[in-house]
Amino acid sequence: MKFKKWVAGIVLLVLSVSAYGQQYDPESDFIVEIIEGNLLVITGYRGSKQAIRIPSRIQGLPVLAVGDYAFMEKNLSSVVIPDTVIIIGMAAFAFNNLTSIIIPNSVTGINDAAFAVNRLTSITIPGSVKTIGDFAFTQNRLTNIIISNGVVTIGDDAFGSGFDLDDPATFRSNILNISSIVIPDSVTHIGWRAFFAMDYSISIDRITIGANVQVENGAFGARGFETFYREQGRRAGVYTFNNNRWTVQFR
Length: 251
Description:
The chain has one domain (about 25-205, about 215-220): Leucine-rich repeat, LRR (right-handed beta-alpha superhelix) (Alpha-Beta Horseshoe). Helix content is about 15%, strand content about 25%. The chain is built from 3 helices and 18 strands. It has helices spanning about 1-20, 170-175, 225-230, and strands spanning about 30-35, 40-45, 50-55, 55-60, 60-65, 80, 85-90, 110, 120-125, 130, 145, 155, 180, 190, 205-210, 215, 235-240, 245-250. The strands form 4 sheets. Strands 1, 2, 4, 5, 7, 8, 10, 12, 14 and 16 form a 10-stranded mixed sheet that branches. A 4-stranded mixed sheet has the order 13-15-17-18, covered by helices on one side.
């Protein structure tokens, strides 16, 4: 009996190790650059899969960054980013068909247009991220956005619908559609049109925000929140739009 249990345990261990060894795509699918001898950046993708799992180590070195344009226009449907990655570069995953993404807690910066023009419906930004770049998530289909405490800067049009005159069909289908947003107290700056749907029938009517945030005009649409927030001395509170006017419950 003990022998059977021992054999069963060994089989489970072998299966676990085998599964672990297969959890990432082959290193050969990725084009990399090594900086200063030990800093590895993925700069391109030569594979053909639509669902990819980025290795945490390539050539024995941890993958620290996904470089600019590395996976742009690769027809990706899903991607797993390892928790070794610190920086996600400009347009790194732009112009794909991603419907969901998990940003690992290791990431500190999401650069401009990193996930622009995809099909994301929900996104959680972990507290490890300090900067969300301009257009980082523009032209997706977001109906849920969670921004964790720790984020400091939200760039211009970061989550907004942007504009694409060359592809009006994409513009009509890829729009922000949220009615409320919670801005954590760590945020100090929100850029121009950061949460602007570019569809005047869709607007945010409930904003929870901290004190003394620099909010650029049009950040939350065309309802004049920014002016009202400044008139209240940029005090922390829950701001609600109802009956064509803003009100606030201070915190």
